[in-house]
Each structure stands twice: as structure tokens, then as C-alpha cells.
Amino acid sequence: MAARIPHARDRQHSRPPRPPARAGPFTAVLLCNLGTPDEPTPAAVRRYLAQFLADPRVVEIPRAVWLPLLYGVILPLRSAKSAAKYATIWTPEGSPLKVWTERQAKRLQGWLGEHGHRVRVAYAMRYGNPSIASELDALADAGAERILILTAYPQYSGTTTASVIDAVAQWAQARRAVPELRFVNRYHDDRGYLQALARSIERHWREHGKPDHLVMSFHGVPERTLHLGDPYHCECRKTGRLLAELLQLPADAWTLTFQSRFGKAKWLEPYTEPTLQALAREGKRRVDVVCPGFSSDCLETLEEIAQEGRDAFLAAGGRSFQYIPCLNDDTEWIRALGAITQQHLAGWPTQAVADPKVLQEQKERAVALGAAR
């Protein structure tokens, strides 16, 4: 039997939705950080931890083993304890990590604008809100045809940077029209980043004096990730070495450590808290700690280091403990982040500003051709 030729009315009713008319395409930058609960409450922390710890990039234990343990043991026991810790660092504006990331995005847009780049800068969280998918949707729906994904992680790790790439890829799978995408994977040895760190530390020392010892504490990961080829350990080591050179520190004046252990597996060593205790027992009266791997102050810096680390050092016999804040929205750091972003935007049309009349004519032509108003 011959196939039925659709009537014109059938074809009309089966037409796909018309794409919206846009004033003109633009380039965007999405600054992605790890994430934070919406509130310092057990329920909000449970939602956040469930998303974070269910990511196979973060916990590589087989799903059939890990998920029952996560939902049956970890979340019921850890949510309330973590919420109490978050409550000690929460600000009237909200989570410190979210506050600083938002300010970084705003200041980055300002810096890029001052250097002639007409781009839109937004921020998102890998876990929690605003999500990567929701911010990518907003940018793409508004007309972004090119999006640079800028991670807040100076050192690359499969547990962080690659997880952001996963989230972007998952978002792209659900989109018919996918913008051009680029990723900033690392800047652990970027000169501007290192100089911003060094100046921040030197500024702290001018105000408070120099310590007997400087500890550079990075977030830990299981040691097996190093043997499986993750470059994170090597990049942390390089950051530490280059930073010590800029500060002109002799080898016995600083130590690089790893914090935030979780579970019973062996993680990258040396561990931060035992190192602080050992320094106190060795007679170091004052220790300063800086966290170069964190671009924004958060639970891991303000509670784990500035509170728990301090208590551990003093309890072991130390006299003075100084935590040096993250770069946050430091002007020199924003300048460095802007230069990194500018480098990765190279080749994209970010500096041409279209005539408003031309943009309006383009929109009118699109509407005449069937685009939604």
C-alpha cells in the first residue's frame, strides 16, 4: 500500500516548536565551584551530601556496595554533625563559599569588561545550588553560543575538575542545540595565581609577623588515585614548591600536607592535623596555615583548619596558630583569574560589539521567518 502523503494541515500541526528570537549571540563564562548546602540544617546538609557523596568521581567504591552504606549509615550519622559545623561558619549572607564565588564572578566580569571583553559571567555549583545544568540552561536560552567552563580548582583532579566536565556533558546530552564549550582544567603553576598567593601571605606576615613554620594544606584524596594516574598530587607539590620559591622559604621552613580524610583507606600524606601536632611537639611556637588549593573560604578552611587545626596545634603544646584566608575576591587574584580566562577565550569574538540597530534588524528578520517573539 502506498504511503499516505500528509495533508498540509497535518504538516502544520506537526511542526516543531519555533526557536525564540534573540537579540544576538554572546560569549559566556561559567565559574564552577564545588558546592554548599542551602542552609546549615541537617535536612539541607543531607541533600547536599547525598548528591556529593553519590558522585562516582568522588567515591569510587562500587555502587552496589557504597549506596546502601551511604543512605543507611553515612547520611543519618553525618548530616547533623556536619550541619553543626556549617553553623559555626555561616554568615548573614549565607554560605561563605557561595558568597565568595558570587563575588568572584561579579568582579571577574568587571575585569573582563575593563579589558574590552563583552562576555557574561555566571557561577554555578557542582553540588547544590545554583546547579551547573540550571546556569547552562539560562545562558544557552539567553543566546550564549560559546561558553567557557572555568573551574575554581587550581589543581586538576578526577574528583573535582573531571566531575565538572561530567556534569556539563550530562547537560549537553539533553540539549538539541549545544553551544561551543571550552574548559579550564588547571592553573596550578600559573604565575599570576602564585603571585597572588605569595602577596596574600606576605601581607599577612607584615600585619602579624612571620611564623616559625608555614603549612600549606591541600584537600586530600585517596592515595590510589595517584597510582591510577591522577595528576592532583604532582600538581599540588608543584604549587607548593613554586610558592615557597616566591616566598624565599628554605626547605625546613614549610611543609605541604593534605587534609579532609574520609574513611579508612590510605590517603595522600602527610596528613594535616598530625603534622600540626608534630610541629608543636618539636617546639614550633607559632605555625601559620594557608590552603592554596581552595580559591574560596569554606567549611574545609574556616572550620577544619581555622578551628579544628588550631585546637589540635594548641593542645599539642603550640603557642600561636594563624590561619591565612583564601584568595576570595582579592584584587590581585581577580586579575590573575581574568588573565587565565582571557587566555582561554582567545579566538572567540568577545570584543566586537554589534550595532543595536543591526541586532534589532536581525531579530525582526528572525521573527519574519517564523521565530517566536
Automatic annotation (TrEMBL):
One of its GO terms (biological process) is heme biosynthetic process. Gene3D superfamilies: 3.40.50.1400. Keywords: Cytoplasm, Heme biosynthesis, Iron, Lyase, Metal-binding, Porphyrin biosynthesis. One of its GO terms (molecular function) is metal ion binding. It catalyses: Fe-coproporphyrin III + 2 H(+) = coproporphyrin III + Fe(2+); heme b + 2 H(+) = protoporphyrin IX + Fe(2+). Residues 1-23 are annotated as: Disordered. InterPro entries: Ferrochelatase (IPR001015), Ferrochelatase_AS (IPR019772), Ferrochelatase_C (IPR033644), Ferrochelatase_N (IPR033659). One of its GO terms (cellular component) is cytoplasm. Pathway: Porphyrin-containing compound metabolism; protoheme biosynthesis; protoheme from protoporphyrin-IX: step 1/1. Fe(2+) binds at H219, E300. It comes from the Bacteria. Its EC number is 4.98.1.1. It is found in: Cytoplasm. Catalyzes the ferrous insertion into protoporphyrin IX. HAMAP family: Ferrochelatase. NCBIfam families: hemH. Belongs to the ferrochelatase family. This is Ferrochelatase. It comes from Ramlibacter montanisoli. The lineage of its organism: Bacteria, Pseudomonadati, Pseudomonadota, Betaproteobacteria, Burkholderiales.
